[in-house]
Amino acid sequence: MKYKKILGLMAVSALASVAHAKTYVLTDVNKGIEQGNWQIAGQNFKVQQQILHGGKQEGSKVITITSPNFSIALSPTRGMGLLHADGNGVHLGWNSPVKEVVNPAYMNLESRNGLGWLEGFNEMVVRCGYEWTGHPVTADGQIYTLHGKAQNTPASYVEVQIDDQAPHAIHIRGLIKESTFKKADLQTMTELTYVPGETSFKLHDVLTNQADYAHDYQIIYHSNFSQPILEEGAQFLAPVSEVSPFNDYAVKGLDTWKTYLGPTKGFDEMVFNLKPLADAKGQTLAALINKAGTKGVSIEFNTSQLPVLTLWKNTDTLKQGYVTGIEPGTSYAYPVTIERAQKRVKQLQPGQSVTFDLTYSLLSNANQIKQTQQRIDSIQSKQKVSVVNTPMAKE
Fold this sequence. Notes:
Layout: H1 2-17, E1 21-28, E2 33-34, E3 38-41, E4 46-51, E5 61-67, E6 70-75, E7 81-87, E8 90-92, H2 111-114, E9 125-130, E10 137-139, E11 142-144, E12 157-163, E13 170-180, E14 184-194, E15 200-209, E16 215-225, E17 235-237, E18 240-245, H3 248-251, E19 270-276, E20 283-289, E21 296-302, E22 308-315, H4 318-321, E23 322-329, H5 336-341, E24 346-348, E25 353-363, H6 366-380, E26 386-387
């Protein structure tokens, strides 16, 4: 019944926003539906699902949206995570040493003292959560593994909905169930919306506590980018009131926290905790731009939903994984025990839902970057950034 309730609410929401649309169900565990390889094409778009074979990606599914100037790939097998996006000659994503779309059946999240999550990590956007997130820790008689389980949970329901009326927006929805006997029943209906011809897309996720008891939740939208935007002299832009180092290693990078090195052997990951500023409606954005200011990417989000922002700088060698992460969330990346102690872990009552909305935009020319910079400057206004020299917590 709870499953039907979620689909019913989803249908009502879809009807409210889309008067006429065609819906194609690709996966439904309750009805035994599994479409396998599948595709649909319109005048200026194609949506395709492919089943992968071989190695650790055996059985993984990838859905690709292709339009004349933009494409997006995501995996229902890996928590509806976004693998990459490409447009106007710019690649959004990164080149991880993990080359395959690893099927969670081959993952052991508790390996490497709770760091097993890294053995599948190669996506552009990873949902870290929702039952917990952050660095691994053993507490409460269990191992809280790195960044939770949602990203390694195959979707139980997947549908593609295409608006009949122009501009024929494409909606891809997937249900992620974190259901464990005596523990939790958190279910997230994820949604990606893309309008063919545009170089941006939206995420709209609804997390619901389906249990009869209240339950904690956390989420970090781990959004990862590399070349050709990330390079020596690239810049991070965001309106913030405060920046602090995640740990002692990051202290020495405070003076240059907004800029990047080129690939640097021996560079350990450097993380900064940010407190984002927002406009009167709670909207804010963060961006990464290349040195010349000619290409970049931005993420817009609402601080009432995602109140904190993490900046992850991993400018190691190209083969090791040259990447930076822009990470809006409800929590920083500290273990759940620290986040609880510092009152950042949130809670859902039985039957309660919470939504998360983000917009990802490719910036492919200097004018788009200028407009993004102006908007960030407007939110920042005259408020100075407070630079805190000590970490807010120690693991």
